[in-house]
Amino acid sequence: MSELGADYGDMDAHDLLWQGCADSALDVSARLAVVPMSQEARGLDAGGRLVQRLVGAGDTRSAAVVALIAEEERAHVAVGVTWFARLCSALGLQPGPLFRQWLLSLNPDLLKGPFNHKERNLVLLPRDWYDPTAWPAEAEAAVAPGGGGPQQQAPAGSQLQEKLRGPVRGRPHPRRAGPLPRLSEAQLAALAERLAVFAEVEGSATAQRLGKGAG
């Protein structure tokens, strides 16, 4: 950026990531589904295409930077997939239906391609979670999470495709002045309750593993 006459923070940025954080603030599983498993997964979808465009324009140096960023994005998405699966296991929920429900409820735009299925498969993100064309004729009934997600039948893939809006580019995000907004006591209590259940199950599993190791 310095070579191009700019410094970090000089350029306007959209607030899609912050919108996703705000939308998913009430439930840990929603946050994992929306941010690392969907918003960051867009980097897996777009990285290769952007690299090809830069190479075609003769900018191999920028292409190498974008390729590195896209590769690093794999770890971000993989962490989200891992913890989402572990959280669902701890709470006794089916991950596929829950993931689809959160995306349908909070940001259906993230269910619109094009997708890089090869890259998403590398991080163990199942296609029948995020791609409506791979959903069954009648999607499974949505699992109702404790965070208050809607209890409704998810639409079939073909029906959903007709309802999806065009890509949302986000709004210009002004620089913040002052402290960041805080969650309310009710929101914090809801998060604490979910994390307490998860921590209890994880702690029990860890104790069992340690016990087996000692044996």
From TrEMBL:
<feature type="compositionally biased region" description="Low complexity">
    <location>
        <begin position="151"/>
        <end position="161"/>
    </location>
</feature>
<dbReference type="InterPro" id="IPR009078">
    <property type="entry name" value="Ferritin-like_SF"/>
</dbReference>
<protein>
    <submittedName>
        <fullName>Uncharacterized protein</fullName>
    </submittedName>
</protein>
<feature type="region of interest" description="Disordered">
    <location>
        <begin position="141"/>
        <end position="182"/>
    </location>
</feature>
<dbReference type="InterPro" id="IPR007402">
    <property type="entry name" value="DUF455"/>
</dbReference>
<feature type="compositionally biased region" description="Basic residues">
    <location>
        <begin position="166"/>
        <end position="176"/>
    </location>
</feature>
<dbReference type="Pfam" id="PF04305">
    <property type="entry name" value="DUF455"/>
</dbReference>
